[in-house]
Amino acid sequence: MKVIINPGHSTTDPGVMGPTGLYEHDAVTTVAQVLQEALHERRIESEILVQPGGNPQWALNHLMEQVNARQSEVDIFISLHCAADKQREAYGTRVLYLEDSEESKLLAENIQKHFPRTLWSGVQPSQEYILQQARFPAVVIEIDHITNPEVEMLMSLPAWQEKVADNIVNGIFDFIGPQDIRLFIDGQEIYSDPVPQLVYGDVMVPVRLLAEALGATVEWDSERRILSIYTHRTSEEEEPSETPALSEASQA
After folding, report:
1. How far apart are CA 198 and CA 156, in angstroms?
2. What range does the domain containing 187 cover?
3. SS3 83
4. What is the pLDDT of residue 234?
5. pTM of the predicted model, to two decimals?
6. Would you state the torsion angle of the CA atoms of residues 80, 85, 91, 92, taken in this order, to the nearest 10 degrees?
7. 123, 158, 176 — which closes off a domain?
8. Of 95, 103, 101, nearest to 124 (Cα)?
């Protein structure tokens, strides 16, 4: 399981500036770092990819090329932004998803439900370029309204940043399902992808991971749909039987 985190905008295109001078890119970059730490604590791999400076359209193209080059290893793409509104009192989180993408809509809904409801918050369909280009579930999270002076002040507080990150992580877990079962063999923790799952009261573990960790060999016959596990016990049990025979021969 891997999440790509993109702090929106760049150093040359810093986005919206708040009433006291905080730029959108600076605000979301800090939250991206806190989010990565929160994901790591929950054993979810993540990577931060930043849009390069320069021409904004070229920079977006370059960013999405980087993102999609990781298609085989990435499960979710999250781009962090700030909302802006002419009404200075506006506050609340908005999560945007690609219209007609049911997976992205579900991801957006699961994240949004962990944030307070306000007149300006909600889940909205969008045709944002990065959402169109992503090849896996993707959302744009406008973490709050940077144009609100009180919100802008909160954005610099570690406690607020951690709360935003926790809300996003909880939404991700609601989207992907429980992922908190840990596997230990002889006291050593074993990490797996996919992780162990609780299904109808039984813990399901990838059989190849478990077998190989116990020293067995696994073979899968896709044509006959037969899974074979070889523990090597047969050959080990046969070896001692030769010793008595040799001993008897030497006594004779």
Report:
1. 39
2. 183-251
3. strand
4. 55
5. 0.72
6. -40
7. 176
8. 95
